[in-house]
TrEMBL record:
Domain of life (superkingdom): Eukaryota
CDD domains attached to this UniProt entry: CCT (cd02174)
Ranges for region Disordered: 174-193, 437-462
Record organism: Phyllosticta capitalensis
Cytidyltransferase-like domain residues: 31-154
EC identifiers of the protein: 2.7.7.14
Name of one Pfam family that matches: CTP_transf_like
Entry's family note: Belongs to the cytidylyltransferase family.
Comp. bias (Basic and acidic residues): 182-193
Protein name as catalogued: ethanolamine-phosphate cytidylyltransferase
Pathway: Phospholipid metabolism; phosphatidylethanolamine biosynthesis; phosphatidylethanolamine from ethanolamine: step 2/3; Lipid metabolism
Keywords: Lipid biosynthesis, Lipid metabolism, Nucleotidyltransferase, Phospholipid biosynthesis, Phospholipid metabolism, Transferase
Entry keyword Transferase: yes
Length: 462
């Protein structure tokens, strides 16, 4: 196949500024890819790339380029850009970056080096996508994150497997749960703990950032509904990080955050935006207040400290059935940790944030508990009844990505199964067959019917 001439935009045509070439800086790093699903493997690549420099520019390929070279994307370019922009280690996203990494493109944006994982990426002709930057001596390799990929996640969806579930995060981290020998389990658990720690780093990827906690339920809840929630438990710290600073409002959000996507990201961004607006009204951004924070702490910071609670696998599976969550609690927690809108994470947070739980949070009762406009895990009862009684509940209104959740993403895969199966086949993954597809579709219908019944019952009680 003859190669098409390389497209190099003219000033005014570059997808994002600057429009004129900037000096090449060896501390400005380039990484590119499809970034289909914002899973922790992608975040891990960006983290390692960021650790090699002081700025990280992230090239994101167009839907059309990916279709031509690899197959269909699950997420749109707009959704993929939102995910990249939310990664705390990304300085700037560059949409429509060429599929074959281009020296004129990386040089235009002043990047000295390109970083990629230690796997091989080829274009439609079977040639190395990084051949030009390798030949120029401007390529660096980082380790590929094991155990996670877009291909893996699509396989879980199509096959309805549950082998990725984690029953107890504590036991998985200590090596008591998992596959393999005792020594292998302990080694896996230690690697998981190390990954949680590094994903909690700040925007440099080298210094402490988010704090990480685990909620330990003292007594098992009597029922899955909020009225049966247990009040007994405590938070224990897993990773030291940056605690709330003087004047910051601590706010709490929670969820499954399965297949961490633009829907979750836009909700979290909206929380921060709302808190910034509140801070602006209170004079947070006045020159006097800004100077005082800098003089007292050495740097400025925002008005909100966002704590995100992440539910256990069995909690999500109780409400959604089938094989949700598609990502286990470890994987979902890493996705939340890498998000720049988050200040701290609480693993194994309860589905119902009771008054006792909210007061037991590491920083005391939060100023606000936020929730999105819709629920992917509908309950007959209101999980936020205590937050409402305390007068600290607020809802984020509908946004452009409100419809994007794990169910929507799985639906996209199922509707275009033939195309995704071909993509899997190219990667050496065996096809699943019509029977498996019918089983998934039937399970989804059953769970949708259950959800509709719960919603009808909830409405009758309202």
């Amino acid at each position: 196949m003859a190669s098409l001439p390389e497209y190099v935009p003219k000033p005014g045509d570059w997808p994002v500024d600057p429009q004129h070439d900037v000096p090449i800086d060896e501390h400005r790093i380039w990484i590119d890819g499809c970034f289909d699903f914002s899973h922790h493997g992608h975040a891990g690549a960006m983290l390692q790339a960021r650790q090699l420099g002081k700025e990280l520019l992230v090239g994101v390929h167009s839907d059309e380029a990916i279709l031509e070279n690899k197959g269909p994307t699950v997420m749109t370019l707009k959704e993929r850009i939102a995910a990249v922009d939310a990664c705390r280690w990304a300085t700037k996203s560059i949409p429509h970056a060429p599929y074959v990494t281009s020296l004129p493109w990386i040089s235009h944006y002043g990047c000295k080096y390109v970083v990629h994982g230690d796997d091989i990426t080829s274009d439609a002709s079977g040639e190395d996508c990084y051949r030009f930057v390798k030949a120029a001596g401007r390529f660096k390799i980082v380790k590929r994150t094991p155990g996670i990929s877009t291909t893996d996640l699509v396989g879980r969806m199509l096959l309805c497997t549950k082998t990725h579930f984690i029953k107890s995060l504590d036991k998985a981290l200590s090596g008591e749960e998992g596959s393999g020998s005792e020594q292998e389990r302990k080694q896996d658990g230690q690697q998981m703990k190390e990954r949680i720690k590094v994903y909690s780093s700040n925007e440099t990827g080298l210094e402490p950032g988010s704090e990480v906690w685990v909620w330990h339920q003292g007594v098992e809840s009597k029922t899955a509904e909020p009225s049966g929630a247990s009040d007994d438990g405590k938070c224990t710290k897993m990773v030291d990080g940056i605690a709330p600073k003087k004047g910051q409002r601590v706010v709490y959000v929670d969820g499954g955050f399965d297949l961490f996507s633009s829907g979750h990201i836009e909700f979290l961004r909206s929380v921060v935006e709302k808190e910034e607006a509140e801070g602006r009204q209170q004079g947070w951004y006045s020159s006097e207040a800004t100077q005082q924070r800098i003089s007292e702490t050495g740097s400025d910071y925002g008005p909100a400290y966002v704590v995100a609670g992440v539910h256990d696998d069995q909690v999500i599976n109780h409400w959604k059935g089938v094989n949700y969550p598609i990502m286990n609690i470890f994987e979902r927690g890493l996705c939340v940790l890498q998000c720049k809108y988050i200040s701290a994470v609480v693993f194994s947070a309860p589905f119902t944030p009771t008054s006792s739980f909210l007061n037991s949070l590491p920083y005391g009762l939060p100023s606000v508990v936020y929730h999105g406009p819709t629920s992917f895990m509908p309950s007959v009862e209101d999980p936020y009844v205590d937050a409402r009684k305390l007068g600290i509940f607020q809802e984020i209104l509908s946004h452009d990505f409100s419809h994007v959740n794990a169910g929507e993403i799985v639906g996209r895969i199922m509707r275009s199964r033939a195309q995704y199966e071909e993509r899997q086949r190219v990667k050496g993954v065996k096809g699943i067959g019509e029977e498996a597809v019918r089983r998934r579709e039937e399970m989804e219908r059953e769970e949708s019917a259950k959800a509709a019944e719960r919603e009808a019952l909830r409405q009758s009680k309202a």
